[in-house]
Amino acid sequence: MSQRFRLLQGGRIDRTRPIDFRFDGVTLHGYAGDTLASALLANGVHLVGRSYKYHRPRGIFSAGAEEPNALVQLRDGARTEPNMRASQVELFSGLVANSQNRWPSLRFDAWAVNGLFSRFLPSGFYYKTFMWPASFWMTYERVIRNAAGLGRGPTEPDPDRYEHRYAWCDVLVAGGGPAGLMAAMTAARSGARVIIADEQSELGGALLSDTVAVDGRAPGDWVAQTVQELRATADVTVLPRTTVTGYYDHNYLTLLERVTDHLPDEPDGKTPRQRFWQVRAKQVVLATGALERPLCFRDNDRPGIMLAGAVRTYVNRYAVLPGRRAVVFTNNDSAYGTAIDLKRAGASVTVVDLRREPGGDLVDAAESDGIEVMRGFAITAVRGGRRVNGVVVRQLDEAGEAVTGGSRKMACDLVAMSGGWNPTVHLFSQSRGKLRFDDGLAAFVPDRSFAAERSAGACNGAMTVSACLKDGIEAGRAAARDAGMKAKAGPGAPTVDEPAAGETRALWVVPSGRRLGRGGKHFIDFQNDVTAADVHLAHREGYISIEHLKRYTTTGMGTDQGKTSNVNALAIMAELRGVAIPEIGTTTFRPPYTPVGFGAIAGRNIGAFMDPVRVTAMHDWHVEHGAKFEDVGQWKRPWYYPREGESMQDAVNREVLAARNSVGILDASTLGKIDIQGPDAAKFLNLIYTNAWLKLPVGSCRYGLMLREDGMVFDDGVTTRIGENRFLMTTTTGGAANVLTWLEEWLQTEWPKLKVYCTSVTEQWATIAICGPYARHVVGALTDYDKLGPRDFPFMTMREMTVAGVAARVFRISFTGELAFEINVPRRYGLAAWEAVCDAGRKYGITPYGTEAMHVLRAEKGFIIVGQETDGTVTPMDLGMDWIVSRSKGDFIGRRSFAREDTARDDRKQLVGLLTEDPHEVLVEGAQLVGTVTAAPPMTMVGHVTSAYYSPNVGRSIALAMVIRGRERMGETLYAPRLDGKAPVEVTVAEPVFYDNEGVRARG
Amino acid sequence: MFLIDCPWCGPRSQKEFHCHGEAHIARPKDPEAVSDAEWADYLFNRANTKGVFFERWVHNHGCRRWFNVARDTVSDRILAVYRMGEKRPKVKR
Question: Which helix (H) or strand (E) holds A252?
Fold first, then answer.
């Protein structure tokens, strides 16, 4: 156990539970209750990464969500995760982490050469340099991405389980520090249903790092008791390890709960790794605390330079001494708490204060503890590369623009800096609240709320524990009241004896005695390697708006989203422009507050749960008979049924021939079916379809085309009159849901007086299509053959009869052009009926065929498929289907649009057939057609191929196409490109019917 | 994610609904009697209002009823919800 920097006592770690972990291949030791960062520091490890652009050595910077430097690759294999903040990763046994963005090793990084050439790598360097030649960008980009970039994403599927959880509450409290705890307690006592979420492993926030007595008790003890009380209160949900990541419209918030991330890898398959909460809250209390700002001084990025508040957290909460010789560099009083605690923990401490006359109680307390305080001084240089080993300090002039006098060198291994505090207003801003700049705090604070929320505590500008507690009580009371609770006596404010604080001196760039950007760097954004000199450059080049500044310099981007950098960057820009900070404004704070993994967002909606899979009653039969399946919408449809040794083309040819020459059987259950009932049903269909429906006899079927109001084909199908006031509409498989919505839309919004009711019955029926010369024989074997003749049961009619012992609706409709019957039985009898048909058809060689054969068969007949021949820009006339458009019945949807200039023009694309010069060459669907081939593009395109198949019945390849003025081009030669780039295919324009032009076979 | 107060089912999450654009676009009573320009206006032209906007929603994963919503497109606050056929309510932002 060589935790050389572990304090002998104190902290909230569990010394009875030592933990081994590995960082960059070295085994180290820590305790339960540590974060990866605190355990590394306990082992004396500061250097943990290389910076993004200059590859400068970087150390642990913070103790929380704002961490820009200590980003590690956590775990390995399928569970590996890049860019994890060491300051937030809880230590667990066997944890494996590796540093990122270094090659070949962290201590020696080849790309650090960028640091030497940094004068040639200013902001906008890539834009300016890699402009030419444009074709080289891909080459540049690969090298740049290798050199920069952060961690690596996992390459294997995520083995863990993530869940979504939905909840509502009266009051959601984001943050479990002093303000959040009091808000939750107050709201809960008035009877509100409360959820309180905190991103850390335990609630308490800043109190866990503090030493101040609350109600006479140690802060940790007060927190423990308060949390215990909260947990015991009805309707209170306490969520530690849960970050409120996003604040959206209508008080909808997302929370990421890390359920097992802090445990060693032992997935039990039941507990989710993370839970993604989606909460609708009547009222929200934001108690998100504050983030400390770094000071912008020369070479302020060296490992060992940390935020002062973080240093205090490591000392008090984790019992770790981040350094033995510390310099505390500050512009405000809060860092004096760090100085005092460091000193008491055994470090030697010097305070360098930018203020000439710091006046708070803590300054006196520090001095009486024997700490040297240098008033009106500044750090002008930092010694040490991979770890700070000293600083140079000089006196600061009155205006803060220059340093004067001699320099004093001080050896140190730690610099704790504080540039003041920024209220964590991210969620407030996401909720569309407006900020104002507070000159006293030199920070943005919430001003006007937009959503039903209120801020409390440090995120509201209350910077003492007692102010946070009072603010929390007030916010909790108001939130409960606004959520409709009756006021009840809440908890009183605990007493806290706190020192009075002096003022902050805002000094956005600490002078070093040299020109900015020469011989050292003043970093603003540590993650993106943006310096004060970059802001000056952006200003010189005209990128003076904060939004331009962000994009030009990349400040505020990256995984930390500028948590420590934004205010410093815009303050420097404000100074350069000579305007007040509020005039510059801020960039938009966007969700999530900290990164959320895709696994959590996807939840259980992956794999088989990604999208529902719909199967027919006969699905198992298809599987058993070797069907290959095709996805049509959510449906699995048999595509073809290959036999041993058959290629797809072999199988499809066999199926197509069987359907024309003997008998074929198709599962047509997936077609949409809508039961339409009501006294106005026929009148309604007359408005929906292009043809006439009023006089359709009961028991008859009719094909219909449905248009949108712009005259374009939208869906098609056969509709049957089941009774005087009842129709059964069929739709395309993929269009069923849209058609139902379409019908309901017109009924509810435009023609509410029509008495019509629509019900989807797609899944209530199993549909078996039997086609071919022996279709009547097969069906006849299962029912009364004598009733199937063309006189009793003519083409395009429906009869109710018993088939294979099941009450069925049998339709004489045909999508293949063959004699065909479609047997509809209740779904639960589907498989039995199917098998009965197969048995009856065996002696005729009945052949199951899939969607591919169906497509070939219908293409031979020139029957369109909506969505294949049509694309939303095709009218019935374009398809040569004028015959189905009634000119006499009056109004219907789309009719008026036929007269529109664009719809009526005579050079529209029209449906034609294509015959290839080589009868065995099948065209590529989607191929463009040209009349004249030139040596190189562009060529004038005259149309495109919509369907192309080999037709064994015709004995050659056939195709359908939409061609400009196609019907005038019969016999004309056109050309289609080949995918392999060889000479284009020569085709002849033909009629779009290739088989049984007179249509006698279906009527037989 | 809006919270939409369906006039038939009560408040439900936006994911149960679908928005179908501007409300109160009446289909011409006799389409043949209107000019091409009027017909094109009915077909294609929609307001892009900054402020109070009346739009159609359907509770397609619920009661499947269509209804109208008055929404402030700047704040996304829903100011009124009313049934089909009801008059456009007077609302203030």
Answer: strand A252-258
C-alpha distances out from residue A218 to A223, A259, A289, Å: 9, 29, 20
Cis status, amide bond into A992, omega within 30 of 0: no
Pick from A480, A532, A524, A487: nearest CA to A236:
A480
Q: Is A745 on the interface with B (CB under 8 A)?
A: yes
Q: B82 touching A, CB under 8 A?
A: no
Among candidate residues B62, B72, B68, the one with its CA nearest the CA of residue B86: B68
DSSP string, A923-935: PPTT-EEESS--S
Q: Is B27 on the interface with A (CB under 8 A)?
A: yes
Provide the shortest C-alpha distance from residue B47 to chain A (in Å): 19
Residue A370: strand, helix, or coil: coil
Between chains, do B60 and A709 touch, taking CB under 8 Å as contact?
A: no
Nearest CA in chain B to A710: B43
pLDDT at A126: 59
- The C-alpha of A710 sits at a distance from chain B's nearest C-alpha, in angstroms, of 7
Tens digits of per-residue pLDDT, A817-841?
999 999 999 999 999 999 999 999 9
Question: Do A745 and B76 make contact, defined as CB atoms within 8 angstroms?
Answer: no
Phi, psi of A31, deg, nearest 5: -130, 160
- What integer pLDDT is reported at residue A125 of this predicted model? 63
To the nearest whole Å, the CA of A682 is away from the closest chain B CA by: 20
Inter-chain residue contact A250 with B3, CB threshold 8 Å? yes
For the stretch A476-503, pLDDT in tens is 999 999 999 987 777 889 999 899 888 9
Question: How far is the first Cα of chain B from the last one, in angstroms, to the nearest whole number?
Answer: 20
A249/B1 touch (CB, cutoff 8 Å), yes or no: yes
ipTM reported for the complex surpasses 0.95: yes
Contacts 24+ apart (CB under 8 A), A586-590: A586/A429, A586/A435, A586/A444, A586/A546, A587/A546, A587/A547, A587/A550, A587/A556, A587/A562, A588/A429, A589/A425, A589/A426, A589/A429, A589/A430, A589/A561, A590/A430, A590/A561
Sheet holding A95-99, edge to edge: A26-32, A14-23, A95-99, A71-74, A81-85
Reported pTM? 0.91
- pLDDT of res. A588: 81
Task: Name every chain A residue with its beta carbon within 8 A of the beta carbon of B20.
Answer: 745
Interface contact flag, A741 B75, Cβ < 8 Å: no
Scanning A541-591, the segments in alpha helix (DSSP H) are: 546-553, 566-577, 581-584
Looking at residue A906, its pLDDT comes to 93
Q: List chain B residues with CB under 8 Å of A744.
A: 58, 64, 66
- Cβ atoms within 10 Å, residue A850: 24
